[in-house]
Amino acid sequence: MTVLGHGILELILIIIMTFGLKDFFSKPTVAGFIGLFGGAFLAWMGYRMIKSGINKSVSLESQRAGNSAGVRNLALAGALVSATNPYFILWWASTGMESIRQSYALGLNGVLFFFMGHIFSDFVWYTAISTAFSRGKKLISDTVYRWIILLLGIFIIAFSIYFIGSGWKMLQM
């Protein structure tokens, strides 16, 4: 239910970006800066993930969430937590916007498939994390978790290079 709330908020953002701002964001200069900024933000995220994996500063124990027993509407809580998370806002203002811009090159179907893939990946990721939290160290060790974070950080760095390259090409037009 929490991921549903998160997804509804993302759907609203995608609709606004696709229909309300698509002409503005399709301008080469704007698209180029979004690509550069989004790529730089992804590179920073990837670097932090790699650093935390190497320094062993990330663990399942330190990631445990507080008790949410008082929350009656988990979907609303998911939307509110996402909307107030500065990383969520930064991601959508940079990397998310660039993803929407690139997926719109395939028309509305491209945006729809991006959204479906993005929401599915959110659902899979948060399901895995909540399962890991509920089952504790029986399911995944801190070492395995650190390796996952490290490998995902490397993947994000590679993705950032693609966005930076795309942004640079757009600025050269």
TrEMBL record:
Keyword Membrane listed: yes
Keywords noted in UniProt: Cell membrane, Membrane, Transmembrane, Transmembrane helix
A single Gene Ontology CC term: plasma membrane
One Gene Ontology biological process: amino acid transport
Listed InterPro entries: LeuE-type (IPR001123)
Compartmental location: Cell membrane
TM spans (from-to): 7-25, 31-50, 71-92, 104-126, 147-165
Topology relative to the membrane: Multi-pass membrane protein
Protein name: Threonine/homoserine/homoserine lactone efflux protein
Provenance organism: Geosporobacter subterraneus DSM 17957
